[in-house]
């Protein structure tokens, strides 16, 4: 955009004729112009900066030094924060990355009078934004007394995963998300109204069916570059599937995939929301369906172990609902209504190829007699550490009721 000018006076030869004289073609042009303006208003100002200027700085040599971006979960339990520091050489393992600290009073994790929090590196990835040899590092957050912060759910998850490691649990989590403009309106939707009803958008192709494919594909490539175990994506409410991952790795990789998603969206000037029901009405919500198996489920005859696990889950439905979103089930109550390919939040159900059930056994698994099952209850904004820990507590450690057991360090 290059500034503005006043409209030409009506008597000027170059003046735009009034609408009643311009005819249908002129009116179509008006509609196109309004659409372009709406799109421009829905993206952030920073996304419209000249990226070529940025590139000339990004290509500058680093003189053997390395940028390391520390990433952590903030006090909301949903948001991620980051900051960067310089290391003298490229870290080859997570042990080469030093601990750091930050002001927890600015992230809703501490009071100002005692605000220093520790960042403890736990998992390292290549940096798809600054490129090699720079790194992204996921961190646990510890309080001043070295105890885990309230939203550090990785700490207990790691304990549980160490206890059950001989069962070799595999997870694949389908992270659904919705793209919004910075105005909070779904990206690509008309300003005053709704698009056509659901149907043509699932795995859709075409400008009138898919909005923001550039973002989805950029995120996919960035995850692959970083080393995130992402196994696919498709247009729906924009899901990406992370996994299969074993044990604690599931939470680590999904959180980093979320960070990369938000950074990619920042570059494009839009917002990715993980709200389980961003739009009320006859629209699907957004979940984080969790595919799960143990080694014995994946072997011949594993279906009986799948059925046994589902039976255990059926007796602990309330506990799982409480940990499957950050607000103890309140977020999921807007999504799990029994409609739009969801189960009812108050009832447990299971079935083969049934996307309206709490637990779905894929048809192929039912035919083969072994494999995995899908827990369709977790919300899009769930903490994957909480979800995977809960599943292991119920299906492998045989916990019952709504209380959890404390386990010593393994």
From TrEMBL:
The keyword ATP-binding applies. Residues 153-410 form the GS catalytic domain. One of its GO terms (cellular component) is cytoplasm. SUPFAM superfamilies: Glutamine synthetase, N-terminal domain, Glutamine synthetase/guanido kinase. GO terms for biological process: glutamine biosynthetic process. It is found in: Cytoplasm. GO terms for molecular function: ATP binding; glutamine synthetase activity. SMART domains: Gln-synt_C. InterPro entries: Gln_synt_N, Gln_synt_N_sf, Gln_synth/guanido_kin_cat_dom, Gln_synth_cat_dom, Gln_synth_gly_rich_site, Gln_synth_N_conserv_site, Glutamine_Synthetase. The keyword Cell membrane does not apply. Residues 1-12 have a biased composition (Low complexity). Residues 18-28 have a biased composition (Basic and acidic residues). Keywords: ATP-binding, Cytoplasm, Ligase, Nucleotide-binding. Its EC number is 6.3.1.2. Residues 66-146 form the GS beta-grasp domain. It catalyses: L-glutamate + NH4(+) + ATP = L-glutamine + ADP + phosphate + H(+). Residues 1-30 are annotated as: Disordered. It comes from the Eukaryota. Belongs to the glutamine synthetase family. This is Glutamine synthetase. It comes from Chrysolophus pictus (Golden pheasant).
């Amino acid at each position: 955009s290059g500034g503005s000018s006043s409209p030409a006076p009506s008597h000027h030869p170059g003046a735009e004729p009034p609408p009643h004289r311009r005819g249908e073609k002129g009116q179509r042009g008006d509609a196109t112009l309004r659409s372009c303006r709406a799109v421009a208003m829905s993206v952030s100002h920073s996304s419209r900066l000249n990226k070529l200027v940025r590139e000339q700085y990004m290509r500058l040599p680093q003189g053997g030094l390395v940028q390391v971006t520390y990433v952590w979960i903030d006090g909301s339990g949903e948001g991620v924060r980051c900051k960067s520091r310089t290391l003298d050489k490229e870290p080859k393992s997570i042990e080469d990355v030093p601990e750091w600290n930050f002001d927890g009073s600015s992230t809703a994790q501490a009071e100002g009078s005692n605000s220093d929090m520790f960042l403890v590196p736990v998992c390292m990835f290549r940096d798809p934004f600054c490129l090699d040899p720079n790194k992204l590092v996921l961190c646990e957050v510890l309080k001043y007394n070295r105890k885990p912060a309230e939203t550090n759910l990785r700490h207990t998850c790691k304990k549980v995963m160490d206890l059950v490691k001989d069962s070799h649990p595999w997870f694949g989590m389908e992270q659904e998300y919705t793209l919004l403009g910075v105005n909070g309106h779904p990206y690509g939707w008309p300003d005053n109204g709704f698009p056509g009803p659901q149907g043509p958008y699932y795995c859709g192709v075409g400008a009138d069916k898919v909005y923001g494919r550039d973002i989805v594909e950029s995120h996919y490539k960035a995850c692959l570059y970083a080393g995130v175990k992402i196994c696919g994506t498709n247009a729906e409410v924009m899901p990406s599937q992370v996994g299969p991952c074993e044990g604690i790795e599931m939470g680590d990789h999904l959180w980093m995939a979320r960070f990369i998603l938000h950074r990619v969206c920042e570059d494009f000037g839009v917002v990715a929301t993980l709200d389980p029901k961003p739009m009320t009405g006859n629209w699907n919500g957004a979940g984080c369906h969790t595919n799960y198996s143990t080694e014995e489920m994946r072997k011949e005859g594993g279906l009986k172990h799948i059925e046994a696990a589902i039976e255990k889950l059926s007796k602990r439905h309330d506990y799982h609902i409480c940990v499957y979103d950050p607000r103890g089930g309140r977020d999921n109550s807007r999504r799990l209504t029994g409609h739009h390919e969801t189960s009812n939040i108050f009832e447990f159900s299971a079935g083969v190829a049934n996307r309206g059930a709490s637990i779905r056994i894929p048809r192929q698994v039912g035919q083969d007699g072994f494999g995995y099952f899908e827990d369709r209850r977790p919300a899009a904004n769930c903490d994957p550490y909480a979800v995977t820990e809960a599943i292991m507590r119920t299906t492998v450690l045989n916990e019952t009721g709504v209380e959890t057991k404390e386990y010593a360090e393994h």
